[in-house]
Amino acid sequence: MFFRKDNRKPFKNTVRILKRASLILLGILVSLIVSEVSLRIAGYLYYNFWMKEERKMIRREQSELVRIENQKIPAGDKTLVKILCLGDSWTFGVGAEPGYSYPAQLQMLLDKEHPHKYRVYNFGIPGCYSGKLLRYLPMLLKKYEPNIVIILIGANDLYNYSPSDLVYVSTWSRRCYFWLTSTISDLRVYKLIRFGLDGLMQEAVVLKKHAVHTNEKARLESNQLTRTGHDLYTAGKFELGEAYLEKAITINPYNEEAYLRLGHLYQAIRQYPKSLEYYQKVADINPYTPFRSDLYSFLFLMYQEFKSRRDISDKIISLVKKIPSDDMFKNPGTPFILNSNLTTRNLGNNLIKIAGLLSSKGPVPVFQTYYNYPEVNGLITSLAKKYDIFLVDNAKSLEGLADIDSYFALDNHPNEKGYNLMAENVFRLLMNIDKQKFVAQSGYY
Hints:
Distance between the termini: 107 Å
Radius of gyration: 27 Å
Shape: globular
Mean pLDDT: 79
Number of strands: 5
Strand order of the largest sheet: 2-1-3-4-5
């Protein structure tokens, strides 16, 4: 009897394997989709039912805008001047009570002087940077058709660990790569995995570094001393705060926060080499420290002030490179520290585009300056002069004030008093500006 070899068997096995692989991949895909939807639903529920204070902060200006929207404007009154205030947290009003942002206070000043003649819109977004503003500006101009647009932007360009907006004028392949990576990084499943891996890396590094384990009682005592020390030195009691923080380290030599707070303390009293030693300690103990966002912020402020000093700037750059960075923690200050020329060039490029867009659409552009951001202020001032843009120089108004601290909240944002000064600066410009220039540019008078 003769047997014929069945050549179809390997083919059938291959098909069977492919089917199984397809089912497995499909199962993984469905699981990821279900997980993504579940996480988004959970986030929605958490935001709407537990984050009450955060929601209040986000919505606090909305009530003020509703009040402005509901004002009775005489029908057919074409003298109404619409003012858009665009920018970041300094425009939004972080640091002040609801209703006391500079746009809100500007509306009050204008209403007192010229009732029903001006309408101010606050479109400040905390964390906003120039590239983001540039992207949503055309929509706002089309929707509101403003006569005046007041811009205060740039501080977050130095802080944010966001991909440079130069990517939008880059090659097609780079734009595709940016779109793909930003889309993936926005997925909740991806963020959950990144947080999980980051937490595991933190634990692994801590366990490796802690050759001598600190008992729980000592750890809690050290943490309490750290909090007390922090409260003391932020209240100006530096020597007492230093003593508490040093004691916290004696009890627990691996207390990352205590080293960080000591670094900040010495930075505040301008002992920069000693400050850097403590920041270095934080990175030595755990480069994945959960306090790395604060660490980057402190290093950024130090670098901004002393980048011309090679002995300090080189150490800061070396330390920044040593600490792991990723898109989950934003890492304030990184772009400016590692490439200040690219950062300021990118900001300048965006500011020029913003001014050009405003001029082409009709509204009068007005730039403002911050306080204590010399690179940004210098760039804003020079561009305003070069392109004949009206400028409100808040930095100049604040410099030299004996009681300057009374104009700011603890987080370095202006408080009600600080925003009032900004509002008065803008108000004076609007009242004293050359009327004929407005006629030529916007024709609203």
